[in-house]
Each structure stands twice: as structure tokens, then as C-alpha cells.
Amino acid sequence: MRLLRVQAQSFRNLGAEVLDVDAPFVAFCGPNGQGKTNWLEAIAALGTLRSFRTSKNAELLRFGAQEAMVEGLVSSDGMTRRYRVAWKDGERTLRREDRVVDAVGWLRSFRAAWFVPGDVAPIRGEPALRRAMLDRAALTLEPSYLSLAQQLRRCLDHKAALLRPGNADGPTLDAVDAQLAGLSVRVIARRTETVAQMAPHFRAFYEAFGGAEDAAVRYRPFATGDAEQLLQRMLAARPQERDLRRALVGPHRDDLEFQLQGRPARAFASQGQARSLVLAWKLAELACARTGDETPLFLIDDLGSELDPDRTARLVRVVSELGAQVFVTTTDARFLPKGKEELRIFNVEAGVARLASTG
Questions:
Q1: Cβ-count burial 91-103 (b if 16+ within 10 Å, e if not)
Q2: At 352, which CATH number?
Q3: How do residues 113-148 score in pLDDT, each as one tens digit?
């Protein structure tokens, strides 16, 4: 798939100009604080329906603005279509060719993946960060996972409300646990399949980026079994859940374990090893999300900040070989690939992007 043009209105500090980004490799260059990453974030909002910087839609709007939008012209599956995401009064609206669509339908035809500096944190961070990585990959590979993940979240929120003092109605809690057990089985199955698909690519990409260690990734579900077995574990944990006022059994307690030489990377991976692990995971996500000749966009924020020149060159080469259109930001054009055909560079100042050169 290819993003041909992009335009933003009242999105952070961005200008309203229409950018022609119909090139395999597009770079936003300039000093920090000028809006390079805002352009990348706008493209991420189109390709993933979320920001890699915030979960609050209000933060995407220019100061004082009541609404904002990002619009892109996208070529995929032999068709050229206009995609528009808008935010107003705390609500998000999705339109494809001026028709309102849901998120799953949107992501089936237009997707993106990213590698940003903060992505390294999950390797040594809390399990919740790694679960988020896994769920993001599961969604990229199968957009319908979004609906399942949302159902699980609502069910967990409902259970948490019932576990508050004075709300713990037994029959209602039984019904919610039965629903939670059924959803848990489906989430665990989808996560298991996602890791199984990505694991071989993950190992290969880690090796390709110079990793001398044997790398592996393992899904660690907190509880396994069919719905009835999970339900029995939930019932057994209920006295403790009432005391702690939170659900103790379910996929919200799963983990994704990265390993080097058979040992958990969380405990001993260096910063360089952590970068390579995350990069291998992101590239595996991109490779597995390919459908036919269609590859999601790949976005890289602050090219050169997390990787040395050799790894940066390898990254650009691998992503290009996968057929992805690449968007990057950088403060230094020297980090951009040399001799790259059809390289399109925009210089960004105060949110305004101006075409500097094309390859």
C-alpha cells in the first residue's frame, strides 16, 4: 500500500498544506521542536488510528482548536481511496470515501507499524508494556482483534466495579466471570497464534541485525485451559479478589518474554540488545502483516537516535525489501540512506513542511 498525499488541519502545530508523499522513502528533517514528529504522528493516526505519544485525543488538537482532522489519499488493493479521521468534542469519526466506517473495516484496508525511541522500554519494563506490544501486533495482523480486546476490557471493568464494596452481587459476578472466561480463551488463542506466526521472523531479523545471541520470544499466559477450566480458577480466586478488589485470573496478567541464550532478556539485556530485540519484533510484525503485494507503512521516529549507522542502513534495506513505504524523522540528513532512489525529503519549520529534494 502507498500513501500518496496527506493533509492535516489543526493537528498539533501542523500547517494545512497538502503533502505529496508518493515515494518509497519519505523523510521529515529539521531541528527538534519544529513539528517533524507531529507529521509522523499524523500519518500514524491514519494508519493505526492511534498516536505513539498519547492516548488522549484532546492532546492532538492545536491549542485553542475545537476540532482537527488528518486526511490521506491511499493506494491499496488496486484502488485509490481517501481516508479521513477527525476529532471533535472528544469523539473520533472515520470516513473512507466520505462514508463512515468502523475501525476494523478501516484497518483491513490501511495499516501501519512504527519504531520509535520509547519502544525499547518494554523489554525491561512491566508486563503491561509487553502485553501492549503483543496486542498491537495481534491487531496489525488481524484487525478484528480490536473488537475482542475491547470486549475483554469492558468485561474486566465491569468485574472491577462489582468487586467494589457493596457491589459484589454473587449471581451477577458469576455471569461476568463466565463471560470473562469465554473472552479469555479467545484472547489467549489469538495471542498464541500471533507469537507463533512472528517467532521465526523475529529470530531471523535479530540475527540479521548482528545479534550474536540466540534470541527467542515466548508467550506466557497467566492461565490456560478451556473456558470451564478458567472459570473454575476464577471462582477459586474470588475470596482473594474480593479482598483486593480486582480480577486476579485472566489474560490481563499475561506476559511476553524475550529471551537471549534461553534467559529472560528483561533481567540482563543491554540497551543495545534491547533495541535489537524490539526492532526484530517490529519487523516481524511488518513481515507477518503483509497480504499479497500489500505491506503496511513503516514509520521511524528520530532515525539515528536509537541505532548506529550500520544498523540504520540495515533497517532501511530490510524494510524496503519487505515492500513497505517508509516515513522517517531525523534532525540530521546524514542519517538518511545514501543512493536511495526516490527519496523524498521535507524540511519542517514551525509545523510547515516544504519539499527539499527528491531522489
A1: eeebbbeeeebeb
A2: 3.40.50.300
A3: 999 888 889 999 999 999 999 999 999 999 999 999
